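Course assignment 3, question 2. Fill in each field.
Student: A.L.
Task: Predict the tertiary structure for the chain below.
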Amino acid sequence: MIWVTWRQFRTPALVMLAGCAAYALALGWLGYSTRHAYDKEILGCSLADGCRLTDQKRAFLSEFTPTVSAAQAVLLLLPALIGAFWGAPLLGREFEAGTQRLAWTQSVTRRRWLAAKLLLPGLATVLLTAALSFLLTWAADRFDEVEGTRFTALSFASRDVVPVGYALFAFAAGTAAGLFLRRTLPAMAATLAVVAAVLFLWPSLVRPHLRPPVTESVAFDQSVRDHDANVSFGHDRPAFVAGYQVPGALMLSKVTYLRTSSGALVQPSTVQDCLAKPPAPMPGTDGAGTVDQCMTSKHLHFDVTMQPADRYWSFQWIELGAYTLLAALLATLAYHHITQARA
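Answer field:
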């Protein structure tokens, strides 16, 4: 059975391997390029006099963001391709051509036939996805270090162990679709739709709630403005902060209101007081930022809800386990249904 499975599987496997080999070469070039640029632009700037490290980091990210984003997109597309071109035809092609009748009249049981067909492609799915995932993690290592967070939707889904879970789920979904639909093309379309829907909805609906979120109070000071947060001192509503990012964290609160030390919202009257009686401008500011200085002097703060950066690996393993469990449930469903399927 293993030899027959390989004969049926070898053409899509070799095509996929050829594409992945080209992708691996591109990742090798990306890893070399980012390390060379990092040593020259980031480490070199740290040692040079008068070099602005913040500007160098922005230039580094601007240079490599398109390439890294494209590499991430390819790896996110890989599970869907595995499910559609490896999983869906695995049984759908057999039922479409009627060749399962010959296999089921032999001494091999249906369940053993199914297990043999799942073994080789399933193992190849794990090994191939794991290799490419860890290669991308290595290639984008310097980029992730400069960017400061691995919790963004694309970064998290294309690094370390999570892509293996995605690929296993997609392969199992394709296999189940081929078994129940009994047609290759409809099974491929259904697989692509299901995998795309799950991978699109999971980051926003499930991932933020895998563990209870943490709420922290952040002082409104100069570091807030250094983080490119959008602070609005509207005259008709309480002041708010948008876009603040705790380093490395998965931010759940996009907009949060400024509060006083007593917890009350900062009202427009507070801003008006600062406008009416601003403090003396700091040297070298040309009078800019005096309202910010006034607000800072009032010891204000805002609350942010997040998943801290130190939960990254626990989220990776939880998500891998969840997708592996989904794959196991789909495989079990196919395993039990195969004995009842009409020949």
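Instructor remarks: DSSP finds twelve helices and six strands in the chain. The first helix runs from residue 2 to 47.
Grade: pending
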